[in-house]
Design a protein that fits this description.
Number of strands: 18
Order of helices and strands: EEEEEEEEHHHHEHHEEEEEHEEEEH
CATH architecture of the largest domain: 2-Layer Sandwich
Largest sheet: 8 strands, mixed
Oligomer: single chain
Shape: globular
CATH topology of the largest domain: Chloramphenicol Acetyltransferase
Strand content: 15-25%
Helix content: 25-40%
CATH class of the largest domain: Alpha Beta
Number of domains: 3
């Protein structure tokens, strides 16, 4: 049997082979990892669906593969009733289809032509509301594959269709047209005529980061609020409980304090912990607090998610932050560990720098940027000037959802939560 690259998740239709963990002649079992693949923002293990003896390996390190690509061949394979037991006739009939790369929902490029009209084919069933949305967005219903009963088109199908258009544009190496009709010319210039240069191909991860940052910056109306927080109270608590946390196997950094203060503030301002359903024109308020933590790695910026931060103690958050940061730097994060965030924190404190303007991690509506805490002169309530540890922070928010007044109040309350952090939340 031939073992092919399976569909491993949403948006994981291709990837770069990082390492091949088996060789010709090896006998493997079903579920054994045969290679590691750089897909989306993680290095993911790819298991074999069947066991047997490897007779050929069709990929090598550095190859870019797509869903359906042959990875290796087995003899004596047994996948417990998997498609490997299909008859030769069935395999022969399926071969021409598997020979080409498979895209999401197996949609041909012709199905993605934005110039089509509803006259190009039969129009599927859809509610008046869905027809209205499709008409306003310029989406021909004849080109949309319905997922509801009887092939009925629902709002989610329209969103999926738009996603396919974006994927096609990305594969073609072009930028989509901006909402106001502005286009982005691609840079294709010979810089060597001006002096010595070197050329480095973009990694798959860097390509993903580039495309998403452009989309987030262009499609979201960013506004950024700047502020400073006095960390004197938190620094005193760190000094007081540092030894206790070290005995419990954790380092007490400022970040867990800031996450707890952030979650407390998000609970007061639910619109900051939300997402805008653009097609349905609905604001989704999330009652969970999954905090994305931007991690700087050699390969690029990764954002693993700290789940249910509202339900965890300071010690649990501290331990989990250390764990997920290590996995991110080793590129061992699973794709699922970077999904489902409701709010993101970008912390540059360990590197240095002051205020900066972070880009919102769509489909979230706000992001917190943290700079390096440093001693600065502060005028106290008594009129004295003292050196205090001051944290520079910024809040970037989606102005479609959040108004300036709400952002200002959110920032004021976040600073209050930081500056009045209770000792009871730190005690073990």
């Amino acid at each position: 049997m031939d073992v092919r690259f399976p569909k491993v998740g949403e948006g994981a239709d291709s990837g770069k082979v990082v390492s091949v963990l088996v060789k010709v002649g090896d006998t493997i079992s079903a579920g054994q990892t045969i290679l590691e693949l750089e897909s989306e923002k993680a290095i993911a293990p790819i298991p074999s669906p069947a066991g047997g003896k490897i007779t050929a390996i069709s990929v090598k390190e550095g190859d870019t593969i797509t869903v359906g690509s042959v990875l290796l061949s087995l003899e004596g394979g047994n996948s417990d009733g998997a498609s490997a037991s299909a008859s030769p006739t069935t395999k022969k009939a399926a071969a021409p289809r598997a020979a080409r790369p498979v895209v999401a929902d197996d949609v041909d490029d012709d199905d993605l032509l934005p110039t089509a009209t509803e006259d190009d084919g039969p129009v599927p069933a859809a509610s008046p509301y869905v027809r209205k949305v499709a008409r306003e967005l310029g989406i021909p219903l004849s080109r949309v594959r319905g997922s509801a009963s009887g092939g009925r088109v629902v709002v989610e199908d329209l969103a999926r269709y738009i996603g396919k258009l974006e994927s096609k544009v990305a594969r073609a190496g072009k930028y989509a047209e901006a909402p106001q009709g502005l286009s982005f010319p691609l840079v294709n210039q010979d810089f060597a005529v001006f002096g010595p240069v070197t050329s480095e191909p973009l990694t798959p991860l860097r390509k993903i980061i580039s495309a998403r940052m452009v989309e987030n910056k262009v499609t979201l109306p960013h506004v950024t609020q700047f502020a400073d927080a006095d960390m004197s109270g938190i620094e005193a608590l760190r000094a007081q409980f540092k030894a206790d946390y070290e005995k419990a196997g954790s380092k007490l950094t400022p970040t867990p304090f800031l996450i707890k203060a952030l979650v407390e503030t998000l609970q007061k301002y639910p619109k900051f912990n939300a997402s805008l359903q653009e097609v349905a024109e609905t604001l989704i308020i999330k009652h969970y607090y999954h905090i994305g933590i931007a991690v700087d790695t050699d390969a690029g910026l990764l954002v693993p998610v700290l789940r249910d931060a509202d339900k965890k103690s300071l010690l649990q958050i501290a331990k989990e932050l250390t764990e997920i940061a290590g996995l991110a730097r080793d590129r061992k994060l699973s794709p699922d560990s970077m999904k489902g965030g409701s709010f993101t924190v970008s912390n540059q404190g360990a590197i240095g720098g002051s205020h900066f303007t972070p880009i919102i991690n769509k489909p979230e509506v706000a992001i917190l940027g943290l700079g390096k805490t440093s001693l600065k002169p502060v005028v106290t309530a008594e009129g004295k000037i003292e050196a205090r540890p001051i944290l520079p922070l910024t809040i970037s928010y989606d102005h479609r959802v959040i108004d300036g007044g709400s952002a200002a109040r959110f920032t004021v309350d976040l600073i209050k939560a930081i500056e009045t952090f209770p000792a009871s939340a730190v005690k073990l």
